[in-house]
Amino acid sequence: MTREAWPLIEQAQSIFLIAHVDPDGDTIGSTLALGYALRQMGKDCTLACSDPVPRILSFLPGIDEFSTPSIGQCDVVITVDASDPGRLGGAYEGVLTMGLPILNIDHHVTNTRFATVNLVRPKASATAEIVFDLLREWKVEINSLLATYLLTGIVTDTQSFSTSSTSPRTLEVASELARAGASLIEINEHYYKSKDPGTLRLWGRMLDCMRVDGRLVWSINTVRMREECQAGSDNGNGMVNLLVSVREAAAAILFKEYEGNRVEISIRSRPGVDISAIAVHFGGGGHPQAAGAVLNGNLETAIPRVLAKAREVLDYGC
Amino acid sequence: MTREAWPLIEQAQSIFLIAHVDPDGDTIGSTLALGYALRQMGKDCTLACSDPVPRILSFLPGIDEFSTPSIGQCDVVITVDASDPGRLGGAYEGVLTMGLPILNIDHHVTNTRFATVNLVRPKASATAEIVFDLLREWKVEINSLLATYLLTGIVTDTQSFSTSSTSPRTLEVASELARAGASLIEINEHYYKSKDPGTLRLWGRMLDCMRVDGRLVWSINTVRMREECQAGSDNGNGMVNLLVSVREAAAAILFKEYEGNRVEISIRSRPGVDISAIAVHFGGGGHPQAAGAVLNGNLETAIPRVLAKAREVLDYGC
Known about the structure:
2 copies of one chain form a homodimer.
Chain A: H1 5-10, E1 14-19, H2 25-40, E2 44-49, E3 76-80, E4 102-106, E5 117-120, H3 127-137, H4 144-157, H5 168-179, H6 184-192, H7 197-208, E6 211-213, E7 216-221, H8 223-228, H9 239-243, E8 251-258, E9 262-269, H10 276-281, E10 285-286, E11 290-296, H11 299-317
Parallel strand pairs in A: 1-2, 1-3, 3-4, 4-5, 7-8
Antiparallel strand pairs in A: 6-7, 8-9, 9-11, 10-11
């Protein structure tokens, strides 16, 4: 499948790469790796993202390059780790109407195959795992910088090799990236061991608000909590993983309130429990064990709607 | 080096395997794997440990076999993951005086090479990594049970591939074990993802009480907090590791109040910052990056005394 990507790239001189909204280590690491490799082949690359890159990823060289320019003149667009055009964010969700060839590289099972060429592998633990194969096929030498970009994608998306998507192949690729010079320790120190005090205070508040409702564990992350804890709006996203580690939990949901009457839900589940239907019901998407959606409305209206749907899905689903 | 082990084993019919005191996933997983493999070769094996095996490892088949029999008649003793005879515990620390051939399999840099044959590899992330090579050399087929034993050793000793001992080889071995049928997910689910809700509530309260004082981060764990959260008295011990992951932190201290006018302090620091002097000053001890002590008195008196000493040590120490 990787072979279909090349004809789209081969003739292109100018390539516009888009990381998804609310960017994580996988979309950013994979986009940086692709940009670096394509430039080595003499291509002009623009790295774009609708949202600012979280500070926790600032240890990655080249991170400052991400901005939100208009697409303008380019020969091909590559979307990275985005399951549907909505995940490209306000600045780019209209890209399908521009008549440009698009390469969609992603590992989400819910990917809508919206592009000219869809390099979608739901069995990959991270989009970075697909990019690794792509670069191998393109005969790009994986140096320590490329290895660091890709291992960051894998380590962050698998929560340090602990998600159900972590396969023998994932560990093998990680081993090759470590041999190529990526430092697992450095990535872990930067990503997991340089926490913002405001984020930890916010974690405290979210744990204070934790509710165990049968096999469902949930909590909230409000605008006010973030203000009081002096935590940035991109903080607190790891909490839902902690919530689902509660012994009783089959699934966990975190409700994140935004200004402007929006609530983002992040859902996680135990292996064998598929919660993607909850996200899809509310117009979102994701994986069986990790999914999300954005609802219009406030917490008071969103929570009962989502909990009702979650109970229904959990009743059927396990 | 693995080759020297075989002559000791080859002639032996009866083998006595000893896991270390305060047993962890590596000593238990490695001992189970060795016992299983040696029995396949027709040997009689006894699995011993001075201490009970922790409940968190009870998902490993065969775990009930561990007991504390006297060594009695056997042809060879294998010590597993023990850096010195003291680590064999009260029941077995005298094994050196019995005149038996001993095979010492370990990865601790501090191993005292106390045995007849010392298979000690400080570069291995876990003793299980060494046992993997040993079984390969002995031409033992690694089935899914053996793979589960060994991967449990690696995953628990590397804290899910995040310690500095995790090498490319570690990831490669893990990949082979996963291919052989070990389920990384299952090990993680059992070992890391069965948290008590009371513990998480307590974590929330401790994070609420977190203070950042220059390069020192600290919090408290009171009797009342544990009661209100319905957390057991042994809960909340992982918190100091989370506190030292704060970006600003050179060191972190957790003050744990006990009934009867006692306060236990747990101290952690970043690599390069030695905080053992704080613990030693209050009659405790430990390592440069992890130390502790117990003080008489209440939190009101203990906190200012310890913080004053900590500031002094940190001023000199970094």
